[in-house]
Write a structure and sequence with these properties.
Blueprint lengths: L1 H11 L4 E5 L2 E5 L2 H12 L4 H7 L1 E9 L4 E8 L2 E8 L1 H5 L2 E6 L2 E4 L2 H16 L3 E9 L7 H4 L3 E9 L5 H12 L6 E2 L4 H11 L7 E4 H5 L3 H7 L3 E5 L3 H13 L5 E4 L5 H6 L2 E5 L5 H6 L2 E3 L4 H41 L8 H11 L1 H8 L22 H28 L4 H22 L7 H4 L5 H19 L1 H7 L6 H33 L10
Helix pairs in contact: 1-2, 5-8, 7-14, 14-16, 14-17, 14-18, 16-20, 17-18, 17-22, 18-20, 18-22, 20-21
């Protein structure tokens, strides 16, 4: 009788439903309530039949502060209240307990025995609910009347094991310099057990409950907030306070939430993440991101993809700036020294509209670097071009400018070639510099040969397209006449290619030096140096 009573309360004080759709059973509603409905179904108890015999006339919804939900039903002209919630909150409102079909007075010894069993369940990582009932003699709209002098029926423990992918994602976050904090309404033993399983709570971190947080003033909390990774029995107000504390410490905070009361914390966080499947519209409106699948792993994948997109934008800009600035300086220096123009206007047009764009598109489609989630988070105040990238640009521009002008002057003065041929040589040299530099731009620290020179097919297609376009321009007479270029012989191609390849050799040598420094630094640091 006690088990049947327990299951009935779990079904009646419940807003979830079990539905059969597409040849499978699914829960429509909150997961914990769904588990109670599934329990009833397995016991052969149908929710619809129960509700026909127990007509609901009032609901006092779950509230994060009191951590209870109660419903009032009419049963044979009597008003019966059914209550479920956190064991400690239910028990403190109970004066009786139900056993073997009888109601008995709840004494301190029995209450202690129940709480010990609750602690045992919670320490195993189980979510525990207490269920109770009473006959309501007074006003059923009065929540204090409904939720006092209850009769305790039993505990229900629910296992909601985290997916293996979640543990892996949390480990990724740690490597990426992202601190994961668990904030839950569950009891502290349950929260500690699950967080230890996931690797959130370690020997160097601590857990705290909502009431303990209430006992601290803001100054005290700020001193310890960075050492706490698990918050149990919290309310939405606590979430807002936690966000404020981390932001006061200078952290960028992302907060997840699904309820109406989570909206202030979602709004205050730098990145509010609402649940798309079970989240309320208010939470979704307050958030910047809505998760369609309510999966933590999706957040980590989004971080990884976001880092890669940002990194690709930097590669793209780094590549284009070296080429474009070099083109301008070549022209300016030629004018300053009184030399003929190394390139014509049409050559500049071809450089910027054809040969530069194809490799740049390939760089923008670079695959995710496996190291990207092993780097420190970027300083939000840092510009799209870091000081390190600007240094690389400053190093490479003189090499491109000097190589292009040297080729031009060599053909014009030493080989005594006509101006169109010298301009063609400078034009091809600049193109080849940019094509070789495209492979440099894939990584500022890793050798293109260790990454795999053929691993970015889009870049290879882009480089090949630019090179074929250049050959067409030189060896297709109508195009050559329009652009004022002349064909180059094999020896000239070899000398120009070797000249332009110097940009790749220079950066490869530097990467070897930088990589050796990183290896030494990794012995002292948690994270490798950033790619930028």
């Amino acid at each position: 009788k006690t088990i049947s009573k327990l299951i009935e309360i779990g079904v009646l004080c419940n807003n979830s439903e079990l539905k059969y759709k597409d040849n499978e059973w699914t829960v429509d509603g909150e997961v914990t309530e769904g588990a109670l409905v599934v329990l009833a179904a397995k016991a052969g108890i149908k929710k619809e039949e129960l509700h026909q015999r127990h007509k609901r006339i009032k609901e006092h919804p779950f509230d994060p502060s009191r951590k209870l939900m109660s419903t009032v039903h009419v049963v044979e002209d009597r008003k019966i209240a059914y209550v479920k919630g956190a064991p400690e909150r239910v028990l403190e409102r109970c004066s009786y307990y139900f056993t073997q079909g009888k109601v008995k007075k709840l004494d301190a010894a029995t209450k202690e025995k129940i709480m010990n069993k609750n602690s045992e369940f919670a320490s195993s990582g189980l979510r525990v609910l207490a269920l109770a009932f009473k006959e309501v003699k007074g006003d059923h709209h009065d929540i204090n009347e409904v939720e006092s002098n209850l009769c305790f029926v039993g505990l229900v423990s629910i296992r909601d094991p985290p997916q293996e992918s979640v543990k892996e994602s949390i480990e990724k976050c740690k490597m990426a310099g992202i601190k994961v904090v668990m904030i839950t309404g569950d009891s502290e033993p349950t929260a500690r057990a699950i967080s230890q399983e996931l690797g959130i709570l370690t020997k160097d971190s601590h857990s705290i409950t909502g009431p303990e947080l209430d006992s601290m003033d803001d100054e005290e909390f700020l001193k310890v907030v960075e050492n706490i990774t698990v918050y149990a029995r919290v309310t939405p107000e606590h979430k807002l306070r936690i966000v404020n504390a981390f932001q006061a410490k200078g952290h960028i905070v992302a907060m997840t939430g699904d309820g109406v009361n989570d909206a202030p914390a979602l709004k205050k966080a730098d990145i509010g993440v609402a649940m798309g499947m079970k989240g309320t519209e208010v939470a979704k409106e307050a958030a910047e991101i809505v998760l369609k699948d309510d999966n933590f792993t999706t957040i980590v994948k989004a971080v990884e993809e976001g880092r890669n997109i940002y990194s690709n934008i930097r590669r793209f800009i780094y590549y284009l700036l070296v080429g474009n600035i070099s083109e301008v300086i070549v022209l300016v220096l030629a004018v300053l020294i009184g030399a003929p123009l190394p390139l014509t206007a049409l050559m500049y047009l071809f450089l910027n509209l054809v040969t530069s764009d194809f490799p740049a598109i390939g760089l923008a489609l670079e695959k995710v670097n496996p190291r990207i989630m092993r780097q420190k988070p970027r300083d939000p105040q840092e510009g799209i071009l870091s000081d390190y990238i600007m240094l690389k640009i400053a190093q490479l521009i003189p090499l491109v400018v000097l190589g292009t002008l040297t080729t031009f002057m060599w053909f014009l003065l030493m080989k005594k070639t006509p101006l169109p041929e010298a301009q063609t040589a400078a034009f091809v040299t600049l193109i080849m510099f940019e094509l070789f530099h495209a492979y440099n731009a894939r990584s500022l620290q890793e050798s293109v040969f260790s990454i795999g020179i053929f691993s970015n097919k889009y870049l290879n297609i882009g480089v090949l397209a630019s090179f074929l376009a250049t050959l067409t321009l030189l060896y297709f007479p109508p195009a050559a006449r329009v652009f004022g270029v002349v064909p180059l012989n094999t020896s000239e191609w070899i000398s120009i290619t070797l000249m332009a390849a110097s940009i790749l050799f220079f950066m490869e040598i530097e990467k070897v030096v930088v990589s050796s420094e990183i290896k030494e630094r990794k012995k002292l640091e948690l994270y490798p140096t950033r790619e930028d």
